[in-house]
Amino acid sequence: MSRLQKRLGKARVSRTPTPMTTDDEYESDTASVASNDSLWGNDPDTVDVKSNWQDEMLETIDALGDRKNSSTTGREELLKSFVRVASLKVVTEEMLAGRADELISLLGRMVKSGRSVKEVTLAARAICLLAASIPDNTSLTTTILPLLQQTISNGKDEGSLPALIYALASVAFSSSTLTSAEILPLMQFLSEIFESSGHSINQGDDDDIITASIEAYAILLSIIESPEDTIPDAMPALVDCLSSASLSVRLSAGEAIALSYELTPLEDSESESPQPEIPPYDDIHHLTTLLSSLSTQSTKKISKHSRREQHSLFRDILRTVADHRGLPTQKLRFAKNQELRINSWEKLLRLKHLRRIFTHGLHVHLAGNTHVREALELAPVIDAGSSSEEEDGMSSVERRSLQKEVKRLRKGKIRQDRRRAGEGRMIDVFGVDEEGEI
Predict the structure, then answer these.
(1) What is the distance between the alpha carbons of residues 41 and 36, in angstroms, rounded to a whole number?
(2) Which of 236, 246, 292, 324 has the most CB within a 10 Å radius?
(3) In this structure, are residues 388 and 364 in contact, taking their beta carbons and an 8 Å threshold?
(4) Contact predicate 417/425, CB 8 Å
């Protein structure tokens, strides 16, 4: 498993579950590679939906609107069905046949008055998918965004709060109408959650909530103008989070700190060691000492695999903070002869955010979702095609060939590549398990 795969979430399977997905088919962790392999099978060709999925999607909206004749379990199943379709297919306003506002209203009602944690969590997950698929729909920002913030503020049903936090970040991140001035209060709201260890929303010391708020803060930090003006305010709390007993909190805080240093402009200087114009954190010696310790920390409290992940991640974070060096470039291959260069913390965290939303359908949206491609600075979609194979941008034959190549590389070249921090590492979006099986 490559370093990029680790950072997309696989290593968190045995640690802190984040209710971005729900129990049964959609509840395990932060949409990690391993969880989805176990849910949908190891062969991505088996992950599919019915050929009449557009009609099924409209029927689902009809059924969700018939609340009098539905049960909590029934609504959960309907939401699960919609989430599955929207994850694996690129949904557009046209496909919703003018009913996008109706669907958004129904999801908002479930967020506000859902009868179970699972119903609320699935509704939040559906909102994430819509935000990344039809971000220009104004109902998401005018109706859903305030509702999400209010529901999170109330602090009820802690099991669904991480999913609601991710949904709030997804709507704001994808919106084409929100300005930086409108996003900044949301970032302040999120930073208060991790600064107070969750007490600001009456959910103290919940690691899932703290992790979600840090990751949501970081993804919004990546899209605002002049982030250097905001960064110093949150840095003390992020540095404090590096000492958390929770590995997921430490990792998310470290990534947010690396992003903060990456986004801070450097002085105009010919020096080999350029310095930030405004240091994000006053006590750089304390920060680098802490990061150095985390990059070499040896403890039996976490597994060997998790220690390796922490060491690898914090070595890269330390290089960014201390030496202002960027993230080593890696490449993600997807679809037909297409690849995504991951060469910055900003792009890595955006990719992780999208991986959390789309899970096993990420390759479909990388190939055919215009909004996803814009977020990752990929060229516009040329032709989405009409066949099912063309829709996901990769035929089954090509996909199996790619999987075989990844297995081959796993046994030799990838292990050599890991010793280098340079370019050329090619991974596949479906993931590889611990034994190298796809």
Answers:
(1) 8
(2) 246
(3) no
(4) yes
Integer angstrom CA distances of residue 392 from 155, 185, 323, 336, 377: 39, 37, 40, 9, 19
Question: Are 143 and 11 part of one and the same domain?
Answer: yes
Report long-range pairs for 224-228 (Cβ below 8 Å, ≥24 apart).
Answer: 224/180, 224/183, 224/184, 224/187, 225/180, 226/180, 227/260, 227/263, 227/264, 228/263, 228/264, 228/265, 228/276, 228/277, 228/278, 228/280
CA atoms within 13 A on the CB side of 207: 17
| 376 and 235, same domain (yes or no) | no
Collapsing DSSP to helix, strand or coil, 334 comes out as strand
Angle (deg, nearest 10), helices 145-154 and 180-195: 20
For residues 54-68, one letter each, b for 16 or more C-beta atoms within 10 angstroms of the residue's C-beta and e for the rest, the string is beebeebbebbeeee
Residues 161 and 115 in one domain: yes
Strand partners, 331: 341, 426
pLDDT string in tens for the chain (438-residue length): 555 555 565 433 333 333 333 333 333 333 333 333 332 333 343 445 667 888 889 999 999 988 777 899 999 999 999 999 999 999 999 999 999 999 999 999 999 989 999 999 999 999 999 999 999 999 999 999 999 999 999 987 889 999 999 999 999 999 989 999 999 999 999 999 999 999 999 998 899 999 999 999 999 999 999 999 999 999 999 999 999 999 999 999 999 999 999 999 887 656 666 677 778 999 999 999 999 999 987 766 677 777 888 898 999 999 999 998 989 888 888 877 888 999 999 999 999 999 999 998 999 999 999 999 999 999 887 654 443 444 445 555 555 555 555 555 444 444 444 444 444 333 444 443 333 333
7 in Cβ contact with 28 (< 8 Å): no
Q: How many domains does the chain have?
A: 2
In a domain, residue 270? The reply is no
Q: How far apart are CA 237 and CA 243, in angstroms?
A: 10
Q: pTM of the full predicted structure?
A: 0.80
Q: What domain range is 336 assigned to?
A: 332-344+360-428
The token pair that represents 425 in the structure block: 């590492």
- Specify the amino acid at residue 9: G
